[in-house]
TrEMBL record:
<dbReference type="InterPro" id="IPR004305">
    <property type="entry name" value="Thiaminase-2/PQQC"/>
</dbReference>
<dbReference type="InterPro" id="IPR016084">
    <property type="entry name" value="Haem_Oase-like_multi-hlx"/>
</dbReference>
<dbReference type="Pfam" id="PF03070">
    <property type="entry name" value="TENA_THI-4"/>
</dbReference>
<feature type="domain" description="Thiaminase-2/PQQC">
    <location>
        <begin position="29"/>
        <end position="125"/>
    </location>
</feature>
<dbReference type="GO" id="GO:0006772">
    <property type="term" value="P:thiamine metabolic process"/>
</dbReference>
<dbReference type="GO" id="GO:0005829">
    <property type="term" value="C:cytosol"/>
</dbReference>
<dbReference type="InterPro" id="IPR036412">
    <property type="entry name" value="HAD-like_sf"/>
</dbReference>
<protein>
    <recommendedName>
        <fullName>Thiaminase-2/PQQC domain-containing protein</fullName>
    </recommendedName>
</protein>
<dbReference type="InterPro" id="IPR050967">
    <property type="entry name" value="Thiamine_Salvage_TenA"/>
</dbReference>
<feature type="domain" description="Thiaminase-2/PQQC">
    <location>
        <begin position="149"/>
        <end position="236"/>
    </location>
</feature>
<dbReference type="InterPro" id="IPR023214">
    <property type="entry name" value="HAD_sf"/>
</dbReference>
């Protein structure tokens, strides 16, 4: 998701902190269908009818905030914000007609709209959960504080709206006059609306200057709560047409529909490579002399020697990996997707990975590790933001028949299982990786090799698919971010590349693979649903989807986190 400069005050800091949650609005059926230009008119009319209630709630909140402000300039600034909303309400009917739509019928408020409007009213009235604000707001400072809180509750809505519509506008052809929602999108991408959003943030910064750290924390909570209410508001918009999101809703368990999710571990689930972590355990917990006084060769190595050995192995791995990439990418770039050419190139990586693992075994670096130390290290392993939450939601979703498989080059399956144990029942997680050979709970230094190449990963992937029930609807999603994941990414119905590995992209493009941001890919797929009448995901098409976070994957597959 692209960035947006909103200044360095509290408004900008809060937007930067919670901006990632905008994906849960972007990936709603409402916005995906709207971006595709095929959102049903009835769905849009329903949204417009609910939006009017929000506009009235904003106007009322501004009115109360103006009463609370103790500075004439601040009062004037809030009054101008209220006038902007009131003018929009007065011109609302003509704007809707200008956008090319009939006026919607009056509709009752939905639960999500009620929660949002009640939140705005309560905040502007000083009724803030966990905050001691006297009912009569006796002192000028208490009133000013509530004015700041109110702006904190309103600011994320406007920034989010401007941000998402600019994301959508970037996907549209500026010369395409057939997109029925283009005028609406352009309206919220206008300089006028951007200036309105910025004025709210600027005033929030001004009103927050004299607040204490505890009071700024209250604003942060209100800002975040408002973001989540915005997510709920758009997630609750009724869609009467077929939509490609969330993916889980397209699978009907009543007819045996099943979702198989595969993912890599290192730098896909984790923030760090597990091989370095295992080496660090070996260095820190190096074995002492044997009780009978004898010493192994490894025991005689100091921590410094072990670190030096590991550093040499790492340096050699990096150097040879880069040489391997260079030898492949110096060949002529394929004009179209070449699966055969890619497979031939990846054979070089297979030889390289196996040779690197053999050197690690021969070095003895992984000898003498205690299994409990490995498990404890796994439990402390830092996972990518959103990874654990996504896995938990998948495992607890009673309306979805799904299986999760981890396919990894990692040397130790116990490390993976320990790292993901906090996400749920470990037995429900299917881990496919190498293992460290052990005797009496201590590693021997040998690796039980199961997955060392892209081809072996693909074979494991296909074996899993071949063993599942042949009846019913099956859909596979593979999530990975390294060269070793390429074949599985292409074989899955939906291949999602996590992160921005330049090597993976460079190698993929060498053989004609297209990398498409997931959101724009979903918008294109939504158009296909209407034009072709099917949202069938095709294998080996040479197209992979890219994301920058697990929140995007969560939003795509499961929808709103609430």
């Amino acid at each position: 998701m692209g960035g947006m400069d909103v200044g360095g005050g509290i408004a900008g800091k809060l937007w930067n902190k919670f901006r990632s949650e905008s994906v849960f609005v972007n990936y709603t059926p409402f916005f995906v269908c709207l971006a595709a230009g095929n959102l049903s008119a009835d769905s849009f009319h329903h949204y417009i009818s609910q939006h009017v209630h929000l506009l009235n709630a904003f106007a009322h909140a501004y009115e109360l905030a103006e009463e609370c402000a103790d500075d004439d300039e601040d009062k004037k600034a809030i009054r101008n914000l209220r006038k902007y909303v009131q003018a929009k309400l007065k011109s609302h009917d003509s704007l809707v007609r200008e956008w090319g739509f009939e006026l919607p019928e009056e509709r009752s408020l939905t639960n999500a709209t009620v929660k949002y409007t009640d939140f705005l009213s309560a905040t502007a009235s000083g009724r803030i959960e966990g905050e001691r604000v006297p009912g009569k707001l006796a002192t000028p400072f208490e009133k000013t504080k509530v004015a700041a809180y109110t702006l904190g509750a309103i600011a994320p809505c406007m920034r989010l709206f401007a941000f998402i519509n600019k994301e959508i506008q970037a996907l549209l052809d500026p010369n395409d006059s057939t997109h029925i929602y283009k005028k609406w999108i352009d309206h919220y991408c206008s300089e006028n609306f951007e200036a309105y959003a910025f004025r709210i943030e600027e005033l929030l910064d001004t009103l927050s200057i004299s607040l204490t750290g505890e009071e700024l924390d209250v604003i942060e909570k209100l800002y975040h709560q408002s973001m989540r209410l915005e997510v709920d508001f758009f997630s609750s918009q009724p869609i009467i047409q077929e939509a490609v999101v969330p993916l889980s809703r397209t699978l009907d368990p009543a007819v045996g529909a099943e979702l198989s999710i595969f993912c890599d571990f290192d730098l896909t689930c984790t923030a760090f490579d597990s091989s370095a972590i295992l080496a660090e355990i070996a260095i820190i917990t190096r074995p002492k002399a044997d009780p009978d006084g004898s010493e192994t060769q490894l025991a005689r190595m100091s921590s410094a020697d072990l670190r030096s050995t590991w550093d040499a192995l790492s340096a050699q791995y990096t150097e040879e990996f880069e040489q391997c990439v260079e030898s492949i990418t110096t060949t002529e770039t394929a004009e179209t997707f070449s699966y055969e050419g890619l497979c031939e190139a990846l054979e070089q990586f297979a030889h390289f990975e196996k040779a690197a693992n053999s050197r690690v075994v021969q070095s003895g670096v992984l000898k003498g590790l205690n299994q409990e130390d490995i498990k404890r290290a796994g439990q402390r392993l830092i996972l990518q933001d959103g990874c654990k939450g996504f896995i938990q939601k998948i495992m607890k979703n009673e309306n979805l028949t799904a299986a999760i498989h981890v396919l990894s080059y990692c040397w130790c399956g116990d490390l993976i299982r320990s790292a993901l144990s906090s996400a749920g029942d470990v037995k429900a997680l299917n881990v496919h990786s190498n293992e460290l050979s052990c005797e009496d709970s201590t590693t021997t230094g040998e690796i039980i090799k199961k997955l060392e190449s892209p081809m072996e990963k693909l074979q494991a992937f296909n074996n899993i698919l071949n063993n599942r029930d042949k009846d019913g609807q099956h859909l596979t999603v593979y999530i990975g971010g390294s060269v070793g994941d390429l074949l599985c990414l292409l074989e899955a119905d939906i291949g999602i590349v996590m992160g921005s590995s330049p090597t993976l992209r460079r190698l993929g493009e060498q053989f004609g693979i297209s990398f498409v941001p997931l959101f724009s890919g979903l918008v294109a797929k939504q158009r296909e649903v209407v034009e072709v009448g099917s949202s069938n995901w095709k294998r080996l098409s040479g197209t992979l989807y890219t994301v920058s976070s697990w929140d995007e994957i969560h939003a795509f597959i499961l929808g709103s986190p609430s």
